[in-house]
Amino acid sequence: MDGREVVLFCANDYLGLADHPEVISRAAEAAQSSGFGAGSAPLISGHTQYHEKLREELAGFKSAESSLLFGSGYSANTGIIPALAGKDDVIFSDRLNHASIIDGCRLSGAKINIYGHNDHVQLKKLLSEKSRGENRLIVTEAVFSMDGDIAPLPEIIHAANTYGARLYIDEAHSTGVLGETGRGIFEHFKISPEHDVIQMGTLGKALGSYGAFAAGNTEYMELLINTVRTFIFSTALPPSVCAAALAALEILRHEPERLARLHENARMLRDGLKKIGCTITGGGTPIIPVIVGAAEEAVRLSDALSASGFYAPAIRPPSVPEGECRIRFTVSAAHAPSDIDALLEAMKKL
Ligand SMILES: Cc1ncc(COP(=O)(O)O)c(C=O)c1O
Fold first, then answer.
1. pLDDT tens digits, residue range 236-293?
2. Residue 125 annotated as catalytic
3. 133: burial class by Cβ within 10 Å (0-12, 13-18, 19+)?
4. Of the candidates 17, 74, 234, 291, which lies 20 to 30 Å from 344 by C-alpha distance?
5. Rounded mean pLDDT of 91-100?
6. Fold that domain 7-18+256-349 belongs to in CATH
7. Is 100 near ligand 1, meaning CB less than 6 Å away?
8. Which member of 20, 120, 205, 335 is catalytic?
9. Where is 291: in which H helix or E strand?
10. Is 51 marked active-site?
11. Which of 145, 209, 234, 240 is catalytic?
């Protein structure tokens, strides 16, 4: 940064795969053989063997019948949610859902009921108050991007089943992170994804590539192929981006020690920050936010960290509520224990 070396503690490259030699070389080979750009939308000619293979792998990875690729997580959320709910329907959305989910809900034209963060009791209450005739959709993140906590999936599924709602779950920060083999929140809770669930995930975070996907039953994927405007009217991902994601999935399978290192690093930073007396949120994930409060204070801490050789910017509204400004630390399997020790030493001084 500005000619200085700093250690990054804020990226979402949780497994350290973005610069893995195998990911890079597989992307380069694909670009050599198929060109860089896909050249058109998937339904025209943009869908190559790399896209098809990645779709197959992702469906298997998420224990789903089928999957579909999207240009980004933002475009997946803003495209899929309006395809699942329309103006006569009702969406139940967590208060802390990501901006792309909020925009997707707004674009749908559906009635939006916001429930308290991870408050499944309120979710059930809201579901019970609505008439049964409406098509209902529950939308939540699996791991909340700014708080690092995990959605109470068993309770949410119970609510969905009790009141006949479908579930759309954004696994941007849980794909490659949660569960014994990194498959996400369903593996974490040891639940198999049910028929009425659509799992969305991103390729640009733990999988070190770019883009996003949805996984679910064949019927839903057919519906999405035929109705999601951000899928139909947008250029397909570059083949090399798919090749990079395929390489990342293979590495995740063959190098389970990466996932173990990620969680060990997260535990080390979390325990260390607690010992110093920091107020942190979340738990059990590599997103470890230190709540500072006022925006100026958060910026002052971030600047001081940067001067000490660590980069983690202050997160302020509209990304987080007023008065809850924070430094959102994230750890990666690529951090050495000495990096974490050094950060803790700096935080202690500051
Ligand atoms: C929860 C969540 N969903 C969706 C997105 C958007 O994904 P993408 O960066 O691939 O557009 C992000 C962040 O980038 C996110 O944190």
1. 999 999 999 999 999 999 999 999 999 999 999 999 999 999 999 988 899 999 999 9
2. no
3. exposed
4. 17
5. 97
6. Aspartate Aminotransferase, domain 1 (3.90.1150)
7. yes
8. 205
9. strand 287-293
10. no
11. 145
